Amino acid sequence: MAKSPSVHKKIEVVGTSEKSFADAAQNAVSRAAKSVRHTEWFEVTELRGRIDNGKVGEYQVTLKIGFKLE
């Protein structure tokens, strides 16, 4: 039996962290998975941050998250 083709949709989210870009990405994926079913992949589209008094105050990662339509 052949596997039926699937269709996916993309959403864009921004994750933040005071620790790292990787932690910001994990925060975004974890939060999206709480309200979107069937998340399957992500793509990093932008890295940026906030500067506080000459130091990195926050890491920000913009992600496109793909999920399979039911």
Describe, in short, the structure shown:
The protein is built from 1 helix and 3 strands. It has about 70 residues and is of the alpha+beta class. A 3-stranded antiparallel β-sheet has the order 1-3-2.
Describe the overall structure:
- The protein is an alpha+beta fold.
- 21% of the residues lie in helices and 54% in strands.
- The chain contains 1 helix and 3 strands.
- The chain has one helix at residues 21-35, and strands at residues 8-17, 39-52, 55-68.
- The protein starts with 7 loop residues before the first strand and ends with a strand.
**Looking at the structure, what is the overall shape?**
elongated
- The proportion of residues in beta strands is over 45%
User: What helical percentage do the residues reach?
Assistant: 10-25%
Strand order of the largest sheet: 1-3-2
* Number of alpha- plus pi-helical segments: 1
Major sheet characteristics: 3 strands, antiparallel
Mean pLDDT: 95
Distance N terminus to C terminus? 20 Å
Low-confidence stretches: none
- Please provide the ordered H/E string of secondary-structure elements: EHEE
Structural class: alpha+beta
Q: Count the strands? A: 3
Please give the radius of gyration in angstroms.
15 Å
Helix and strand layout, with pairings?
Blueprint: E1 8-17, H1 21-35, E2 39-52, E3 55-68
Antiparallel strand pairs: 1-3, 2-3
Q: Which features does this protein show?
A:
70 residues, alpha+beta, 3-stranded antiparallel β-sheet, 3 strands, 21% helix, 54% strand
